[in-house]
Amino acid sequence: MKIELLDQEEPAFQMAPMIDMVFLLLVFFMCASQMSQKQNLPMEIPTASRAVVPKDRPHRWVVNITEEGDLYSGDRPIKLGALATQVKARLAAVPDLKVYIRGDQRCEHRHVKKVMNRLAEVGIDSYIFGVYIPTAEQEVVPQ
After folding, report:
1. Distance of alpha carbon 20 from alpha carbon 18, whole angstroms
2. Would you call 47 helix, strand, or coil by DSSP?
3. Facing residues of 102 across strands?
């Protein structure tokens, strides 16, 4: 006995949902890249030819110190006294909090030391310093 097959349409690949997903991903990454860039203020950071870039740097909480000694938590101004309060609150939420300290190269070291002492008082023992690593053709020659 011969079984007749019904005429079936060839399955088609739907492009509209895929295009929608590509646009959603594009918007997501555009927004995410803007958020990650807002942590750093425009400043001249010190140069270090033998520095090493840690792999976990993007996941650290950023503290910026300007030339005048003004503090910024990311891109928001903060006072030294409020820094301890904010760090305690963040430590409650993230027990292994790590900090990325970016100080202007013309900033006096006493401002950086105050921040380090305040962080140590509340229990932060893991922080790194932001430096500029020159390429081979940009090497800084000491004078």
Report:
1. 5
2. strand
3. 64
Tokens 């950023």 correspond to 62
For residue 63, is it within any domain?
yes
Domain assignment present for 17: no
Q: What are the tens digits of pLDDT across the range 49-74?
A: 788 777 766 678 888 999 899 999 88
How many folded domains does the chain comprise? Answer: 1
**Residue 97 domain boundaries:** 57-138
Q: Tell me what the mean pLDDT of segment 96-108 comes to.
A: 88
Q: Is residue 86 part of a domain?
A: yes
In the chain, how long is the greatest CA-to-CA distance?
Answer: 98
pTM beyond 0.70? no
Q: Is 123 left (phi over 0), alpha (psi -120 to 50) or beta?
A: left
For tokens 């760090």, what's the residue?
Answer: 87
Enter the tokens of residue 67.
């030339």
CA–CA gap between residue 115 and residue 35 (Å, rounded): 24
Q: What is the pLDDT of residues 6-58, one digit of tens each?
A: 777 777 888 898 999 999 999 888 877 655 445 567 788 888 878 877 776 66
Mean per-residue pLDDT, 78-89: 88
Task: Decide if 32 is inside a domain.
Answer: no
